């Protein structure tokens, strides 16, 4: 792809590094930004800078937040005895949209995947185990996608919790095998949470 401007080329190269964005799409987006008022592009740039500089991870659940303790963990009406284990913030948002879950979350930050070099030590599993050891959690719900990596992660955590006095369950398989939670419709996902089953029954 030949560019008439080095500035344009640099911008396209940066945008094309985003997931699912090729060079042609990146060029179309950059040219679109150039046609907009400069203030709009500056606002986009400022919001991205603020995102990088000011975003936090909740100290309790590791969800993305603007403050030290996220709104969900800080909400006294949530049931702190039930923790739903998810991969990332997209899954929290998907489950919250169902309005069927009133407990708290624990965001792992990924799934165990030896191929990608992601082991248990790269996730927030240790802090989940410590949270359960405090004795205040009555149930841990595994809500990872039903992929090999998701099932491996579920089983690893289950073995860590097996000797602790906590109930473990998994979302019902209204979610097709191989599907990601964020793409499930709200009704199906909501029913999967409500109709969860003991984890050992899924083995």
Automatic annotation (TrEMBL):
<keyword id="KW-0479">Metal-binding</keyword>
<comment type="similarity">
    <text>Belongs to the RecR family.</text>
</comment>
<dbReference type="InterPro" id="IPR015967">
    <property type="entry name" value="Rcmb_RecR_Znf"/>
</dbReference>
<dbReference type="Pfam" id="PF21175">
    <property type="entry name" value="RecR_C"/>
</dbReference>
<dbReference type="InterPro" id="IPR006171">
    <property type="entry name" value="TOPRIM_dom"/>
</dbReference>
<feature type="domain" description="Toprim">
    <location>
        <begin position="81"/>
        <end position="176"/>
    </location>
</feature>
<keyword id="KW-0862">Zinc</keyword>
<dbReference type="Pfam" id="PF21176">
    <property type="entry name" value="RecR_HhH"/>
</dbReference>
<keyword id="KW-0233">DNA recombination</keyword>
<dbReference type="InterPro" id="IPR023627">
    <property type="entry name" value="Rcmb_RecR"/>
</dbReference>
<dbReference type="InterPro" id="IPR034137">
    <property type="entry name" value="TOPRIM_RecR"/>
</dbReference>
<feature type="zinc finger region" description="C4-type">
    <location>
        <begin position="58"/>
        <end position="73"/>
    </location>
</feature>
<dbReference type="InterPro" id="IPR000093">
    <property type="entry name" value="DNA_Rcmb_RecR"/>
</dbReference>
<keyword id="KW-0227">DNA damage</keyword>
<protein>
    <recommendedName>
        <fullName>Recombination protein RecR</fullName>
    </recommendedName>
</protein>
<keyword id="KW-0863">Zinc-finger</keyword>
<keyword id="KW-0234">DNA repair</keyword>
<dbReference type="Pfam" id="PF02132">
    <property type="entry name" value="RecR_ZnF"/>
</dbReference>
<dbReference type="Pfam" id="PF13662">
    <property type="entry name" value="Toprim_4"/>
</dbReference>
<comment type="function">
    <text>May play a role in DNA repair. It seems to be involved in an RecBC-independent recombinational process of DNA repair. It may act with RecF and RecO.</text>
</comment>
């Amino acid at each position: 792809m030949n560019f008439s401007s080095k500035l344009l080329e640099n911008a396209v190269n940066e945008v094309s590094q985003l997931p699912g964005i090729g060079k042609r799409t990146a060029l179309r987006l950059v040219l679109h930004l150039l046609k907009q008022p400069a203030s709009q592009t500056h606002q986009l740039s400022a919001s991205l800078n603020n995102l990088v500089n000011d975003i936090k991870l909740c100290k309790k659940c590791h969800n993305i937040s603007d403050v030290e303790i996220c709104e969900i963990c800080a909400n006294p009406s949530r049931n702190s005895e039930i923790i739903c284990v998810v991969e990332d913030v997209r899954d929290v948002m998907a489950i919250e949209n169902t309005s069927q879950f009133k407990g708290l979350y624990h965001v792992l930050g990924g799934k165990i995947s030896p191929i990608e070099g992601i082991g248990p030590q790269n996730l927030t599993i240790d802090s989940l185990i410590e949270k359960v050891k405090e004795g205040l959690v009555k149930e841990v719900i595994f809500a990872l996608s039903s992929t090999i990596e998701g099932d491996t992660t579920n089983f690893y955590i289950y073995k860590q919790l097996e000797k602790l006095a906590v109930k473990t369950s998994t979302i019902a398989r209204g979610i097709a095998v191989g599907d990601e939670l964020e793409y499930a419709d709200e009704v199906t996902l909501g029913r999967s949470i409500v109709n969860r089953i003991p984890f050992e029954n899924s083995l």
